[in-house]
Design goal:
Blueprint lengths: L1 H16 L1 H37 L5 E6 L3 H4 L9 E3 L4 H10 L5 E8 L2 E4 L2 E4 L2 E4 L3 H4 L13 H6 L3 E4 L1 H7 L9 E4 L2 E8 L9 H6 L7 E4 H7 L3 E6 L2 E6 L4 E5 L6 H16 L5 E4 L1 H44 L1 H9 L4 H42 L20 H27 L3 H6 L2
Parallel strand pairs: 2-12, 6-10, 7-9
Antiparallel strand pairs: 1-13, 1-14, 3-6, 3-13, 4-5, 4-8, 7-10, 8-9, 11-12
Helix pairs in contact: 1-13, 2-11, 2-13, 2-14, 11-14, 13-14
């Protein structure tokens, strides 16, 4: 025990004598460990954000959506002065109801209107006629004091609307939106509720559904069918274009995730009967996308860790380089210790203590740095991007979500220690093989 304590004391004393060199030597380990933790935390944070966006669409949901065929979307000018008919029909919906009778719910959505307006404010229409069941199926939450659509609204064809959070912010920033009246094209509707922010704006879920869900407006399906036709006309300078779509989307919910993939295949076969050659219907299965997102995130974690591990490798090479230089500097000291009875094992132990201390302390400092940056990057990034030199250059990047994982801390510290000790063995062996007589003659 006294031998071990004396060896540790000598190793630490030597490191203190060359404090600056010791810090610079362990810098590679510090940055390497920090890089692993930071990269994994950013990757994990982005993964969780993407998974939340997909899960918000409902793990047991299957979304059937009307999409404009490529041949009609590519036309412009005079060629666009026509009505393009495509997408899900009411017959398609009835066939889904009849053939997928074991589904928990089947909810239609019908897009109506070209524009919504209030006072001087105008927005492109994202109005959908639907049923009250959509609230449960799409995991929607309504702010307090308001309400969602009801069966009574459907029976009475009531001109009421539930608006998204961004619509409320745009139209009713200075007043309470509940009870206010706005226009969908030329039709008046009364606000009965405001949706909580969906959290998909600019995220994975928004990309999947093709729009920002916070700009949606929901009205009773019966009212949409009564006050609006299936044709939506959009006029531009010198031309107009129209779309005839009976149903924009259908949300189909199954009873458990075990039935999702089987039911999705049944839905695809039913849709292929009339839409296989037209390419005007898209099937979105969040459960499939969830599994793909998890696999992609795993691959990215491996890639990020591999890149960060290069820093650890460089740090290990730096330790070996400095320790080899230290052997040359301390050749006479090694000779004296050997002459006084120290064995090769003693010399190896002393150098490994020094190497282990460098990697251990460097690893702990790297963990601290990695945790500090991972926690601070979330609030520091908006401040950095608000600086005059960067303002307006990165409008799409407002925040980076991070999530610290314990396994990344343990893995980075273990790998750093292993790399440091591995690269420290060779200098220790070189030092232990010094001939005592030759070493004593060294200047």
């Amino acid at each position: 025990m006294s031998f071990l304590l004396e060896t540790i004391r000598l190793g630490l004393k030597n490191l203190r004598l060359h404090l600056l060199r010791s810090v610079l030597t362990s810098l590679g380990i510090i940055l390497g460990v920090a890089a692993v933790i930071i990269m994994v935390s950013i990757g994990e944070g982005n993964k969780q954000a993407a998974l939340r966006g997909i899960e918000a669409l409902g793990a047991t949901n299957i979304i059937v959506r009307s999409v404009q065929p490529p041949e009609t979307a590519s036309l412009s000018g005079e060629e666009r002065s026509f009505i393009a008919k495509y997408g899900i029909t009411r017959d398609d919906f009835m066939r889904l109801e009849f053939n997928i009778s074991d589904a928990r719910s089947l909810v239609p959505l019908k897009a109506v209107g070209a524009e919504i307006s209030y006072a001087a404010h105008r927005l492109p229409s994202q109005v959908f006629g639907t049923t009250p069941v959509l609230r449960t199926v799409a995991n929607l939450r309504v702010r307090s004091r308001g309400r969602y659509l009801t069966d009574e609204d459907l029976r009475q064809h009531t001109p009421v609307a539930v608006i998204g959070s961004e619509v409320a912010e745009k139209f009713f920033r200075l007043r309470d939106p509940l009870g206010a009246t706005f226009r969908i094209d030329q039709q008046l509707f009364r606000v009965i509720g405001v949706l909580e922010p969906v959290g998909l704006s600019g995220g994975a879920g928004s990309a999947l559904v093709g729009r920002d869900l916070n700009k949606d407006v929901h009205i009773p399906l019966t009212t949409a069918e009564l006050q609006f036709q299936d044709i939506v006309v959009r006029r531009q300078t010198g031309s107009f274009s129209g779309e005839e779509v009976e149903l924009s989307e259908v949300y189909l919910t199954v009873k458990s995730t075990d039935q999702v993939l089987i039911t999705a295949e049944r839905v695809r076969r039913l849709m292929d009967v009339r839409h296989k050659d037209t390419n005007d219907v898209q099937i979105i299965v969040p459960w499939e996308l969830l599994e793909e997102a998890r696999k992609t995130a795993l691959v990215w974690n491996v890639v990020l860790i591999s890149i960060a591990a290069i820093s650890l490798l460089v740090g290990g090479i730096g330790i070996m380089n400095i320790m080899l230089a230290s052997v040359t500097e301390r050749t006479r000291e090694i000779g004296i210790r050997r002459a006084l009875g120290a064995t090769r094992r003693h010399i190896i132990a002393q150098f490994l203590v020094e190497t282990g201390t460098l990697t251990g302390v460097g690893g702990l400092l790297g963990i601290g740095l990695g945790l500090f940056v991972s926690v601070g990057i979330g609030w520091a990034l908006p401040w950095i991007l608000s600086l005059p030199i960067l303002r307006g250059r990165f409008e799409d990047i407002t925040v980076i979500e991070t999530q610290i994982t314990p396994w990344s801390i343990v893995l980075s510290f273990t790998v750093a220690s292993a790399v440091g000790l591995t690269f420290g063995i060779y200098p220790a062996v070189v030092a232990s093989r010094q001939d005592p007589i030759v070493a004593l003659r060294h200047d």
